[in-house]
Amino acid sequence: MEDLKIYCKNTQEYIDVDGGESLLSVFGTLKARIGHDAICAKVNNVTEDLSTRIYKPMHVEFMSFLSPEGFRVYINSLCMILYKAIHDLYPGRRLKISHSISNGYYCIFKHEKEPISADEISAIKAQMRKIVDADLPFVRRERLTADVKEMMSQQGMPDKVRLLNTSHSLYTSYYKLGDVIDSYYGPLAPSTGYITTFDLVSYNNAMLLLGPNKKSPCEPCKPVKMKKMFKAFTDYVDFNCIVSICDVGELNEAIKGHNVPLMINVAEALHNKMFAKIADDIAARYKKGGARVILLAGPSSSGKTTSAMRLSIQLITDYIVPKMISLDNYFVDRKHTPLDEDGDLDYESLYALDLKQLNQDLKDLLAGKEVKMPTYNFVTGEREYSGETLKLNEGEVLLLEGIHGLNPELTKQIPEELKYRIYVSALTTLNIDDHNWIPTSDNRLLRRIVRDTKYRKISAQETISRWGKVRRGEEKWIFPYQENADAMFNSSLIFELAVMKNQAERVLRQIPVNVPEYSEANRLLRFLEHFEPLNEDEIPSTSLLREFLGGGIFQY
To answer: What angle do CA 78, 84, 89 make, to 5 degrees?
Structure first.
Protein backbone atom coordinates (compact mmCIF):
# COMPACT_ATOMS: atom_id res chain seq x y z
CA MET A 1 0.00 0.00 0.00
CA GLU A 2 1.55 3.24 -1.20
CA ASP A 3 2.23 6.31 0.99
CA LEU A 4 0.33 5.03 4.03
CA LYS A 5 1.12 7.12 7.09
CA ILE A 6 -0.09 7.32 10.66
CA TYR A 7 0.40 10.22 13.02
CA CYS A 8 2.05 9.16 16.30
CA LYS A 9 1.16 11.55 19.11
CA ASN A 10 3.98 10.20 21.31
CA THR A 11 6.68 11.31 18.87
CA GLN A 12 4.58 14.07 17.25
CA GLU A 13 5.34 12.99 13.71
CA TYR A 14 3.99 11.05 10.76
CA ILE A 15 5.24 7.47 10.47
CA ASP A 16 5.39 5.47 7.22
CA VAL A 17 3.76 2.06 7.59
CA ASP A 18 3.03 -0.93 5.38
CA GLY A 19 -0.64 -1.77 5.00
CA GLY A 20 -1.72 -4.55 7.34
CA GLU A 21 0.93 -3.94 10.00
CA SER A 22 -0.20 -4.30 13.60
CA LEU A 23 0.12 -1.48 16.10
CA LEU A 24 2.38 -3.79 18.11
CA SER A 25 4.77 -4.07 15.17
CA VAL A 26 4.84 -0.30 14.68
CA PHE A 27 5.44 0.27 18.37
CA GLY A 28 8.45 -2.05 18.22
CA THR A 29 10.15 0.39 15.85
CA LEU A 30 9.33 3.40 18.05
CA LYS A 31 9.77 2.04 21.57
CA ALA A 32 13.25 3.48 22.16
CA ARG A 33 12.05 6.94 21.18
CA ILE A 34 8.77 6.79 23.08
CA GLY A 35 10.51 5.80 26.30
CA HIS A 36 7.91 3.49 27.84
CA ASP A 37 6.29 0.14 27.17
CA ALA A 38 2.82 0.15 25.63
CA ILE A 39 -0.05 -2.12 26.58
CA CYS A 40 -2.69 -0.55 24.31
CA ALA A 41 -3.16 2.46 22.06
CA LYS A 42 -5.64 5.21 21.39
CA VAL A 43 -6.62 5.07 17.75
CA ASN A 44 -8.48 8.19 16.69
CA ASN A 45 -9.18 8.73 20.39
CA VAL A 46 -10.62 5.23 20.91
CA THR A 47 -8.75 2.68 23.05
CA GLU A 48 -7.78 -0.37 21.00
CA ASP A 49 -5.57 -3.39 21.60
CA LEU A 50 -2.17 -3.59 19.95
CA SER A 51 -3.24 -6.39 17.60
CA THR A 52 -5.23 -3.78 15.63
CA ARG A 53 -3.99 -3.67 12.05
CA ILE A 54 -3.42 -0.53 10.03
CA TYR A 55 -5.18 -0.19 6.69
CA LYS A 56 -5.74 3.57 6.54
CA PRO A 57 -4.32 6.79 8.01
CA MET A 58 -4.97 7.15 11.72
CA HIS A 59 -4.01 9.16 14.79
CA VAL A 60 -2.24 6.87 17.30
CA GLU A 61 -1.11 7.33 20.88
CA PHE A 62 0.62 4.40 22.54
CA MET A 63 -0.42 4.05 26.21
CA SER A 64 1.51 2.56 29.13
CA PHE A 65 -0.23 0.47 31.77
CA LEU A 66 0.05 3.41 34.19
CA SER A 67 -2.36 5.49 32.11
CA PRO A 68 -6.07 5.19 33.03
CA GLU A 69 -6.75 3.40 29.74
CA GLY A 70 -3.74 1.14 30.10
CA PHE A 71 -4.52 0.23 33.68
CA ARG A 72 -8.01 -0.93 32.68
CA VAL A 73 -6.44 -3.10 29.99
CA TYR A 74 -3.98 -4.52 32.54
CA ILE A 75 -6.72 -5.42 35.05
CA ASN A 76 -9.00 -6.93 32.38
CA SER A 77 -6.09 -9.06 31.18
CA LEU A 78 -5.29 -10.10 34.76
CA CYS A 79 -8.91 -11.16 35.23
CA MET A 80 -8.78 -13.41 32.19
CA ILE A 81 -5.56 -14.98 33.48
CA LEU A 82 -7.35 -15.69 36.77
CA TYR A 83 -10.28 -17.25 34.90
CA LYS A 84 -7.94 -19.38 32.79
CA ALA A 85 -6.07 -20.60 35.90
CA ILE A 86 -9.31 -21.62 37.63
CA HIS A 87 -10.51 -23.33 34.45
CA ASP A 88 -7.23 -25.29 34.30
CA LEU A 89 -7.30 -26.39 37.94
CA TYR A 90 -10.99 -26.62 38.79
CA PRO A 91 -13.10 -27.20 35.66
CA GLY A 92 -16.76 -26.45 36.26
CA ARG A 93 -16.26 -23.99 39.14
CA ARG A 94 -17.73 -20.60 38.28
CA LEU A 95 -15.68 -17.52 39.03
CA LYS A 96 -17.43 -14.26 39.84
CA ILE A 97 -15.45 -11.02 40.14
CA SER A 98 -17.93 -9.15 42.25
CA HIS A 99 -16.63 -5.61 42.84
CA SER A 100 -13.56 -3.56 43.68
CA ILE A 101 -12.67 -3.10 47.34
CA SER A 102 -9.60 -2.87 49.61
CA ASN A 103 -7.28 -1.97 46.70
CA GLY A 104 -8.31 -5.09 44.81
CA TYR A 105 -11.18 -7.08 43.29
CA TYR A 106 -13.34 -9.39 45.36
CA CYS A 107 -13.66 -12.85 43.78
CA ILE A 108 -15.88 -15.77 44.74
CA PHE A 109 -16.97 -19.13 43.38
CA LYS A 110 -20.66 -18.90 42.53
CA HIS A 111 -23.09 -21.21 44.28
CA GLU A 112 -20.46 -22.35 46.80
CA LYS A 113 -20.93 -21.61 50.50
CA GLU A 114 -17.68 -23.09 51.78
CA PRO A 115 -14.73 -20.68 52.19
CA ILE A 116 -12.02 -20.82 49.55
CA SER A 117 -9.06 -22.48 51.25
CA ALA A 118 -5.55 -21.08 51.49
CA ASP A 119 -4.27 -24.09 49.55
CA GLU A 120 -6.70 -23.44 46.71
CA ILE A 121 -5.71 -19.77 46.53
CA SER A 122 -2.02 -20.71 46.53
CA ALA A 123 -2.58 -23.21 43.71
CA ILE A 124 -4.53 -20.70 41.63
CA LYS A 125 -1.86 -18.05 42.12
CA ALA A 126 0.88 -20.48 41.08
CA GLN A 127 -1.08 -21.45 37.95
CA MET A 128 -1.55 -17.77 37.10
CA ARG A 129 2.21 -17.30 37.35
CA LYS A 130 2.74 -20.24 34.95
CA ILE A 131 0.32 -18.67 32.47
CA VAL A 132 2.16 -15.34 32.68
CA ASP A 133 5.56 -17.00 32.27
CA ALA A 134 4.29 -18.88 29.20
CA ASP A 135 3.55 -15.49 27.56
CA LEU A 136 0.39 -16.79 25.90
CA PRO A 137 -1.29 -14.45 23.40
CA PHE A 138 -4.70 -12.89 24.03
CA VAL A 139 -6.28 -13.45 20.62
CA ARG A 140 -9.18 -11.16 19.71
CA ARG A 141 -11.80 -12.62 17.42
CA GLU A 142 -15.16 -11.54 16.07
CA ARG A 143 -18.01 -13.79 15.06
CA LEU A 144 -21.75 -13.73 14.63
CA THR A 145 -23.38 -13.03 17.98
CA ALA A 146 -25.43 -16.23 17.65
CA ASP A 147 -22.21 -18.24 17.30
CA VAL A 148 -20.59 -16.52 20.28
CA LYS A 149 -23.67 -17.27 22.40
CA GLU A 150 -23.33 -20.94 21.50
CA MET A 151 -19.63 -20.98 22.43
CA MET A 152 -20.30 -19.20 25.73
CA SER A 153 -23.07 -21.67 26.50
CA GLN A 154 -20.78 -24.63 25.85
CA GLN A 155 -18.20 -23.11 28.20
CA GLY A 156 -20.77 -22.77 31.01
CA MET A 157 -21.31 -19.00 30.96
CA PRO A 158 -25.08 -18.44 31.23
CA ASP A 159 -24.51 -14.87 32.45
CA LYS A 160 -22.78 -13.94 29.18
CA VAL A 161 -25.44 -15.74 27.14
CA ARG A 162 -28.11 -13.74 29.00
CA LEU A 163 -26.36 -10.50 28.14
CA LEU A 164 -25.94 -11.45 24.49
CA ASN A 165 -29.65 -12.38 24.31
CA THR A 166 -30.41 -8.67 24.70
CA SER A 167 -27.56 -7.53 22.44
CA HIS A 168 -28.53 -5.68 19.30
CA SER A 169 -25.22 -6.43 17.57
CA LEU A 170 -24.94 -8.80 14.65
CA TYR A 171 -21.29 -9.54 15.49
CA THR A 172 -19.60 -9.86 18.88
CA SER A 173 -15.91 -9.61 19.79
CA TYR A 174 -14.32 -11.97 22.29
CA TYR A 175 -10.83 -13.08 23.38
CA LYS A 176 -9.23 -16.51 23.30
CA LEU A 177 -6.52 -17.52 25.78
CA GLY A 178 -5.32 -21.07 25.24
CA ASP A 179 -8.43 -23.24 25.43
CA VAL A 180 -10.79 -20.68 26.99
CA ILE A 181 -12.74 -17.74 25.59
CA ASP A 182 -14.08 -14.70 27.42
CA SER A 183 -15.31 -11.17 26.82
CA TYR A 184 -14.36 -7.99 28.61
CA TYR A 185 -15.52 -4.41 28.81
CA GLY A 186 -12.55 -3.12 26.79
CA PRO A 187 -9.42 -4.48 25.08
CA LEU A 188 -6.74 -6.78 26.51
CA ALA A 189 -2.93 -6.82 26.43
CA PRO A 190 -1.06 -8.51 23.55
CA SER A 191 -0.07 -11.47 25.74
CA THR A 192 0.05 -12.73 29.32
CA GLY A 193 3.74 -11.82 29.62
CA TYR A 194 2.71 -8.17 30.00
CA ILE A 195 0.91 -8.95 33.29
CA THR A 196 3.84 -9.56 35.59
CA THR A 197 2.75 -7.79 38.78
CA PHE A 198 -0.19 -9.15 40.75
CA ASP A 199 -1.21 -11.00 43.87
CA LEU A 200 -4.05 -13.23 44.99
CA VAL A 201 -4.82 -13.38 48.70
CA SER A 202 -7.48 -14.69 51.05
CA TYR A 203 -10.16 -12.12 51.87
CA ASN A 204 -13.39 -12.63 53.82
CA ASN A 205 -13.60 -16.35 53.03
CA ALA A 206 -12.99 -15.69 49.35
CA MET A 207 -10.20 -14.14 47.24
CA LEU A 208 -8.89 -10.65 46.57
CA LEU A 209 -7.20 -10.11 43.22
CA LEU A 210 -4.60 -7.35 43.43
CA GLY A 211 -3.08 -5.45 40.54
CA PRO A 212 0.05 -3.27 40.53
CA ASN A 213 0.51 -0.36 42.90
CA LYS A 214 0.48 2.75 40.72
CA LYS A 215 2.91 4.50 43.06
CA SER A 216 5.30 1.53 42.98
CA PRO A 217 4.44 -0.34 39.75
CA CYS A 218 6.75 -3.29 40.34
CA GLU A 219 4.86 -4.22 43.49
CA PRO A 220 1.25 -5.39 43.85
CA CYS A 221 -1.20 -3.37 45.92
CA LYS A 222 -1.59 -4.29 49.57
CA PRO A 223 -5.07 -4.98 50.98
CA VAL A 224 -6.50 -2.48 53.45
CA LYS A 225 -9.09 -3.22 56.11
CA MET A 226 -12.54 -2.06 55.01
CA LYS A 227 -14.94 -3.97 57.25
CA LYS A 228 -17.78 -1.45 57.08
CA MET A 229 -17.45 -0.90 53.34
CA PHE A 230 -17.40 -4.65 52.71
CA LYS A 231 -20.63 -5.09 54.68
CA ALA A 232 -22.26 -2.25 52.73
CA PHE A 233 -21.39 -4.04 49.50
CA THR A 234 -22.41 -7.53 50.62
CA ASP A 235 -25.74 -6.34 52.03
CA TYR A 236 -26.65 -5.03 48.59
CA VAL A 237 -25.32 -8.12 46.82
CA ASP A 238 -27.65 -10.17 49.01
CA PHE A 239 -30.52 -7.85 48.10
CA ASN A 240 -29.79 -8.28 44.39
CA CYS A 241 -30.00 -12.04 44.83
CA ILE A 242 -33.36 -11.72 46.59
CA VAL A 243 -34.85 -9.78 43.65
CA SER A 244 -33.02 -12.07 41.17
CA ILE A 245 -31.17 -9.24 39.44
CA CYS A 246 -27.44 -9.75 39.83
CA ASP A 247 -26.22 -8.81 36.37
CA VAL A 248 -27.20 -6.64 33.43
CA GLY A 249 -28.64 -9.58 31.52
CA GLU A 250 -31.11 -10.24 34.35
CA LEU A 251 -31.92 -6.52 34.54
CA ASN A 252 -32.62 -6.43 30.81
CA GLU A 253 -34.86 -9.48 31.12
CA ALA A 254 -36.82 -7.77 33.91
CA ILE A 255 -37.26 -4.63 31.80
CA LYS A 256 -38.33 -6.56 28.70
CA GLY A 257 -40.58 -8.79 30.83
CA HIS A 258 -42.43 -5.76 32.24
CA ASN A 259 -41.41 -6.50 35.83
CA VAL A 260 -40.33 -2.89 36.30
CA PRO A 261 -42.86 -1.52 38.85
CA LEU A 262 -42.12 -4.18 41.46
CA MET A 263 -38.36 -3.88 40.93
CA ILE A 264 -38.46 -0.08 41.35
CA ASN A 265 -40.77 -0.14 44.36
CA VAL A 266 -38.73 -2.75 46.18
CA ALA A 267 -35.44 -0.91 45.52
CA GLU A 268 -36.92 2.41 46.67
CA ALA A 269 -38.40 0.73 49.75
CA LEU A 270 -34.94 -0.54 50.65
CA HIS A 271 -33.62 3.04 50.55
CA ASN A 272 -36.46 4.16 52.82
CA LYS A 273 -35.72 1.34 55.22
CA MET A 274 -32.04 2.26 55.34
CA PHE A 275 -32.78 5.94 56.00
CA ALA A 276 -35.22 4.96 58.75
CA LYS A 277 -32.66 2.66 60.37
CA ILE A 278 -30.01 5.40 60.41
CA ALA A 279 -32.51 7.90 61.82
CA ASP A 280 -33.51 5.45 64.57
CA ASP A 281 -29.85 4.94 65.47
CA ILE A 282 -29.31 8.69 65.68
CA ALA A 283 -32.44 9.05 67.84
CA ALA A 284 -31.25 6.34 70.22
CA ARG A 285 -27.89 8.07 70.65
CA TYR A 286 -29.57 11.46 71.01
CA LYS A 287 -31.62 10.19 73.95
CA LYS A 288 -28.38 9.17 75.64
CA GLY A 289 -26.89 12.64 75.22
CA GLY A 290 -24.99 12.06 71.96
CA ALA A 291 -25.50 12.62 68.21
CA ARG A 292 -25.99 16.39 68.24
CA VAL A 293 -23.94 16.99 65.08
CA ILE A 294 -24.78 14.77 62.09
CA LEU A 295 -22.04 14.73 59.46
CA LEU A 296 -23.01 13.36 56.06
CA ALA A 297 -20.18 12.86 53.57
CA GLY A 298 -19.45 11.15 50.30
CA PRO A 299 -17.76 11.55 46.92
CA SER A 300 -19.06 13.50 43.94
CA SER A 301 -22.52 12.52 42.67
CA SER A 302 -23.11 10.05 45.47
CA GLY A 303 -26.48 11.65 46.22
CA LYS A 304 -25.52 13.45 49.42
CA THR A 305 -28.07 16.25 49.03
CA THR A 306 -31.11 14.00 48.56
CA SER A 307 -29.80 11.69 51.28
CA ALA A 308 -29.68 14.63 53.70
CA MET A 309 -33.25 15.63 52.81
CA ARG A 310 -34.68 12.13 53.09
CA LEU A 311 -32.81 11.49 56.32
CA SER A 312 -34.27 14.75 57.66
CA ILE A 313 -37.78 13.42 57.03
CA GLN A 314 -37.03 10.20 58.89
CA LEU A 315 -35.49 12.13 61.80
CA ILE A 316 -38.66 14.16 62.17
CA THR A 317 -40.63 10.92 62.53
CA ASP A 318 -38.32 10.23 65.49
CA TYR A 319 -39.24 13.66 66.93
CA ILE A 320 -35.85 15.15 66.06
CA VAL A 321 -35.69 18.29 63.93
CA PRO A 322 -32.51 18.70 61.85
CA LYS A 323 -31.06 22.15 61.20
CA MET A 324 -29.03 22.20 57.99
CA ILE A 325 -25.62 23.87 57.75
CA SER A 326 -23.93 24.10 54.35
CA LEU A 327 -20.19 23.66 54.53
CA ASP A 328 -19.92 25.66 51.30
CA ASN A 329 -20.73 28.76 53.34
CA TYR A 330 -17.52 28.27 55.30
CA PHE A 331 -15.16 28.58 52.36
CA VAL A 332 -12.26 30.90 53.08
CA ASP A 333 -12.07 34.03 50.93
CA ARG A 334 -10.88 33.10 47.46
CA LYS A 335 -7.54 34.83 47.90
CA HIS A 336 -6.77 32.38 50.73
CA THR A 337 -7.93 29.23 48.89
CA PRO A 338 -5.10 26.65 48.61
CA LEU A 339 -3.80 25.64 45.19
CA ASP A 340 -3.69 22.12 43.80
CA GLU A 341 -0.74 20.45 42.08
CA ASP A 342 -1.64 22.19 38.80
CA GLY A 343 -1.68 25.63 40.42
CA ASP A 344 -5.49 25.91 40.29
CA LEU A 345 -7.76 26.87 43.18
CA ASP A 346 -8.42 23.68 45.15
CA TYR A 347 -11.97 23.81 46.48
CA GLU A 348 -11.73 20.08 47.22
CA SER A 349 -9.11 20.70 49.93
CA LEU A 350 -10.14 20.56 53.57
CA TYR A 351 -8.22 23.79 54.01
CA ALA A 352 -10.44 25.61 51.54
CA LEU A 353 -12.77 25.77 54.58
CA ASP A 354 -12.44 28.10 57.55
CA LEU A 355 -12.10 25.34 60.14
CA LYS A 356 -11.56 27.74 63.04
CA GLN A 357 -14.79 29.65 62.39
CA LEU A 358 -16.77 26.48 61.71
CA ASN A 359 -15.70 24.86 64.97
CA GLN A 360 -16.38 28.03 66.94
CA ASP A 361 -19.89 28.32 65.49
CA LEU A 362 -20.62 24.64 66.21
CA LYS A 363 -19.43 24.98 69.81
CA ASP A 364 -21.58 28.09 70.31
CA LEU A 365 -24.63 26.37 68.82
CA LEU A 366 -24.17 23.30 71.01
CA ALA A 367 -23.90 25.64 74.02
CA GLY A 368 -27.33 27.07 73.18
CA LYS A 369 -26.11 30.39 71.79
CA GLU A 370 -27.60 32.20 68.82
CA VAL A 371 -25.06 32.35 66.01
CA LYS A 372 -24.80 34.60 62.95
CA MET A 373 -24.61 32.27 59.96
CA PRO A 374 -22.33 33.07 57.00
CA THR A 375 -22.98 32.73 53.30
CA TYR A 376 -20.34 32.49 50.59
CA ASN A 377 -20.57 34.74 47.55
CA PHE A 378 -19.25 32.67 44.67
CA VAL A 379 -19.14 35.78 42.44
CA THR A 380 -16.93 37.90 44.68
CA GLY A 381 -15.21 34.95 46.34
CA GLU A 382 -15.86 36.33 49.82
CA ARG A 383 -17.82 35.37 52.92
CA GLU A 384 -20.83 37.52 53.76
CA TYR A 385 -23.23 37.90 56.67
CA SER A 386 -26.79 38.83 55.70
CA GLY A 387 -28.38 38.76 59.15
CA GLU A 388 -29.38 35.07 59.14
CA THR A 389 -29.03 33.47 62.58
CA LEU A 390 -29.37 29.98 63.99
CA LYS A 391 -30.10 28.70 67.49
CA LEU A 392 -30.26 25.05 68.49
CA ASN A 393 -33.29 24.21 70.63
CA GLU A 394 -34.32 21.09 72.52
CA GLY A 395 -35.07 18.23 70.12
CA GLU A 396 -32.96 19.73 67.34
CA VAL A 397 -29.68 18.53 65.81
CA LEU A 398 -27.24 20.02 63.33
CA LEU A 399 -26.94 18.34 59.95
CA LEU A 400 -23.82 19.12 57.91
CA GLU A 401 -23.50 17.76 54.37
CA GLY A 402 -20.19 17.90 52.50
CA ILE A 403 -17.26 15.88 51.25
CA HIS A 404 -15.15 16.27 54.42
CA GLY A 405 -17.67 15.10 57.00
CA LEU A 406 -15.71 11.98 57.98
CA ASN A 407 -12.38 13.77 58.33
CA PRO A 408 -11.60 14.20 62.04
CA GLU A 409 -9.92 17.55 61.33
CA LEU A 410 -13.18 19.11 60.13
CA THR A 411 -14.77 19.13 63.59
CA LYS A 412 -11.69 18.63 65.72
CA GLN A 413 -12.97 20.77 68.60
CA ILE A 414 -16.30 18.94 68.92
CA PRO A 415 -16.42 15.97 71.35
CA GLU A 416 -16.64 12.64 69.53
CA GLU A 417 -19.73 11.49 71.43
CA LEU A 418 -21.69 14.44 70.04
CA LYS A 419 -20.98 13.46 66.41
CA TYR A 420 -22.66 10.92 64.16
CA ARG A 421 -21.00 10.28 60.79
CA ILE A 422 -22.69 8.92 57.68
CA TYR A 423 -20.90 7.88 54.49
CA VAL A 424 -22.92 7.98 51.26
CA SER A 425 -21.76 6.45 47.99
CA ALA A 426 -23.20 4.69 44.97
CA LEU A 427 -21.70 1.27 45.67
CA THR A 428 -22.72 -0.44 42.47
CA THR A 429 -23.29 -4.16 43.05
CA LEU A 430 -24.79 -5.00 39.66
CA ASN A 431 -22.34 -6.81 37.39
CA ILE A 432 -22.23 -6.65 33.61
CA ASP A 433 -21.56 -10.38 33.84
CA ASP A 434 -19.60 -12.67 36.16
CA HIS A 435 -16.19 -11.40 34.99
CA ASN A 436 -17.07 -7.71 34.44
CA TRP A 437 -18.13 -5.54 37.34
CA ILE A 438 -19.48 -1.98 37.07
CA PRO A 439 -17.02 0.48 38.62
CA THR A 440 -18.63 2.75 41.19
CA SER A 441 -16.78 5.69 39.65
CA ASP A 442 -18.42 5.05 36.24
CA ASN A 443 -21.84 5.11 37.84
CA ARG A 444 -21.10 8.40 39.59
CA LEU A 445 -19.56 9.94 36.47
CA LEU A 446 -22.70 9.19 34.46
CA ARG A 447 -24.84 10.71 37.22
CA ARG A 448 -22.69 13.83 37.16
CA ILE A 449 -22.76 14.12 33.36
CA VAL A 450 -26.56 13.93 33.32
CA ARG A 451 -26.94 16.40 36.20
CA ASP A 452 -24.34 18.88 34.93
CA THR A 453 -25.86 19.18 31.48
CA LYS A 454 -29.39 19.45 32.85
CA TYR A 455 -28.91 21.87 35.75
CA ARG A 456 -25.48 23.48 35.57
CA LYS A 457 -25.14 24.16 31.84
CA ILE A 458 -21.87 22.21 31.88
CA SER A 459 -21.25 20.02 28.83
CA ALA A 460 -20.42 16.33 29.04
CA GLN A 461 -17.01 17.14 27.57
CA GLU A 462 -16.26 19.61 30.37
CA THR A 463 -17.48 17.22 33.06
CA ILE A 464 -15.21 14.47 31.72
CA SER A 465 -12.25 16.85 31.52
CA ARG A 466 -12.68 17.74 35.20
CA TRP A 467 -13.28 14.19 36.39
CA GLY A 468 -9.64 13.23 36.83
CA LYS A 469 -9.06 16.15 39.19
CA VAL A 470 -12.26 15.30 41.10
CA ARG A 471 -11.11 11.71 41.50
CA ARG A 472 -7.68 12.78 42.78
CA GLY A 473 -9.41 14.96 45.36
CA GLU A 474 -11.56 12.02 46.47
CA GLU A 475 -8.53 9.77 46.84
CA LYS A 476 -6.87 12.37 49.04
CA TRP A 477 -9.73 13.87 51.07
CA ILE A 478 -12.59 11.35 51.19
CA PHE A 479 -11.71 7.69 50.72
CA PRO A 480 -9.10 7.49 53.52
CA TYR A 481 -11.82 8.31 56.06
CA GLN A 482 -14.61 5.97 54.87
CA GLU A 483 -14.25 3.57 57.77
CA ASN A 484 -14.80 6.43 60.27
CA ALA A 485 -18.51 6.29 59.46
CA ASP A 486 -21.07 5.27 62.06
CA ALA A 487 -23.38 4.30 59.20
CA MET A 488 -22.97 3.68 55.48
CA PHE A 489 -25.70 4.37 52.97
CA ASN A 490 -25.49 2.79 49.53
CA SER A 491 -27.24 5.24 47.22
CA SER A 492 -27.10 3.04 44.12
CA LEU A 493 -30.28 1.69 42.55
CA ILE A 494 -30.16 -1.50 40.49
CA PHE A 495 -32.11 0.07 37.63
CA GLU A 496 -30.47 3.50 37.48
CA LEU A 497 -28.10 3.00 34.56
CA ALA A 498 -31.00 1.80 32.42
CA VAL A 499 -32.90 4.95 33.36
CA MET A 500 -29.99 7.32 32.72
CA LYS A 501 -29.06 5.59 29.45
CA ASN A 502 -31.04 7.80 27.06
CA GLN A 503 -30.06 11.14 28.63
CA ALA A 504 -26.42 10.12 29.00
CA GLU A 505 -26.09 8.78 25.45
CA ARG A 506 -27.59 11.92 23.97
CA VAL A 507 -25.05 14.27 25.58
CA LEU A 508 -22.07 11.91 25.20
CA ARG A 509 -22.66 11.74 21.45
CA GLN A 510 -22.25 15.51 21.28
CA ILE A 511 -18.54 15.22 22.15
CA PRO A 512 -16.50 15.56 18.93
CA VAL A 513 -13.99 12.91 17.88
CA ASN A 514 -11.07 15.33 17.77
CA VAL A 515 -10.95 16.15 21.50
CA PRO A 516 -9.25 14.07 24.24
CA GLU A 517 -12.53 13.57 26.13
CA TYR A 518 -13.94 11.59 23.21
CA SER A 519 -12.00 8.52 24.37
CA GLU A 520 -13.87 8.40 27.68
CA ALA A 521 -17.17 9.29 26.02
CA ASN A 522 -16.75 6.41 23.57
CA ARG A 523 -15.95 4.00 26.42
CA LEU A 524 -19.07 5.05 28.31
CA LEU A 525 -21.23 4.80 25.21
CA ARG A 526 -20.02 1.24 24.59
CA PHE A 527 -20.73 0.45 28.23
CA LEU A 528 -24.29 1.82 28.02
CA GLU A 529 -24.98 -0.35 24.96
CA HIS A 530 -25.33 -3.29 27.37
CA PHE A 531 -28.50 -1.82 28.94
CA GLU A 532 -32.09 -1.92 27.78
CA PRO A 533 -33.53 1.60 28.31
CA LEU A 534 -36.03 2.22 31.10
CA ASN A 535 -38.50 5.11 30.94
CA GLU A 536 -37.70 7.66 33.64
CA ASP A 537 -41.43 8.35 34.11
CA GLU A 538 -41.49 5.13 36.14
CA ILE A 539 -39.22 6.65 38.83
CA PRO A 540 -40.92 8.13 41.94
CA SER A 541 -40.56 11.88 42.53
CA THR A 542 -38.91 11.17 45.90
CA SER A 543 -36.24 8.89 44.41
CA LEU A 544 -32.63 9.77 45.02
CA LEU A 545 -32.13 9.40 41.28
CA ARG A 546 -34.26 12.54 40.76
CA GLU A 547 -31.32 14.60 42.05
CA PHE A 548 -29.69 13.86 38.68
CA LEU A 549 -32.63 13.26 36.34
CA GLY A 550 -34.84 16.10 37.55
CA GLY A 551 -38.56 15.92 38.21
CA GLY A 552 -38.23 15.40 41.97
CA ILE A 553 -40.05 17.06 44.84
CA PHE A 554 -36.92 18.25 46.62
CA GLN A 555 -35.37 21.65 45.99
CA TYR A 556 -31.65 21.55 45.17
So the answer is: 130
